[in-house]
Design a protein that fits this description.
- It contains 14 helices and eight strands.
- The chain is 55% helix and 10% strand.
- Helix 7 packs across helix 9 and helix 9 packs across helix 14.
- It is elongated and about 80 Å long.
Amino acid sequence: MLSFLKKALRRNQFLFNIHLILSIIFAVPLLVIGVTGAILSYQHELEELINLNAAKVEKTGEILSAEKILQSFSEQTGVKQPVRLVLPKSENEAVKIYASNSDAYLVDPYTAQIIGKDYGVAFVRVAMSLHRNLGFALTGNKTAGEIGKQIVGASTVAMIVLVISGVWLHFPRIKRKFTEAIKPNFKLKKYALFHNLHTSLGALSAVIYLVVCLTGLMWSYRWYNGAVTELFVSAQNLPKEAERKEGAPAKAEGKKSAEYKFSDVQRAYEIFKSSGIEYKEFSLMLAAGDKINVRYYELDAPSTTRPKMTSVNVKEGKMAEQKQTEGITVGMVKSTNYQLHTGYFFGLAGKILWSVVSLLMALFIFSGFYMTAKRAFKPKKA
């Protein structure tokens, strides 16, 4: 038995079997994660494309106040407390109002009439759920969503093993003939072609897959998120123990949650507009309290940029003061992690490359199964 194990290890048979077994078990989750990852690389463009005609409005006078728009929306839908108000810079675009985090409407800013649902947001929500929990959360069941999240986490770990084992198995050829080992050869046919594409493209995309997987685990495992945070965040900026606990404090039984006033939203809107900040779109994150958070995109911001964050102090009638911190903050780590995960860290080139590599997952799965089937049903020589 020991001699057999040594023989298997020496011939890399053990690693090959691990590579094969994991690819069979996690093929479907990895395919879903890869394809949806490529789609989400262009989520903003897809949202605009899906709403291309619906989001346009004709200027028929003066834009109504945010207060009147929200009041009319509430009367039309019965939603008393919308959660988000998105206001574009252009006068020919619809205002976007979120009835909930996953349900958005397009509203004419001149008449306050709903002109349709935001199907772009709905599409991205489905793609995001498939990417993060295989769509299990779409059932509305928290347990199902958590199960899907854990499957995605396990699939990500499996992908790391697949990448490392795949490179290790291909390394002797890389060492001998580097250029040939990483160069796709489309002149080959059938098995030889699929083997060549599987190994060469796999070697070329290995580093990107490792970056995507290692950053993706931040959303799958709380312990991993905490470990990365403690590793990179400056000691003085680490969250206190109480802040790390999951969820908000439990509400007192029978006690109503606080509600914001539409007039406060109007005030926040006016304060931000007069702040001098240049923007192409901004969102008011609607919630009760003295401050209303604002997300905005700068005027010349590329599509790979995350929105800037600020807040308006409605009570004091001014922009809230931004706390100055030294060293690396939690926000910096989260932002960099997101940028690396999506490829946005490297600009447009990274965005394109990451999306292509995500789509290559389908090729690796198909070629892997093709080669396995060919080996399994290879006719024995007489």
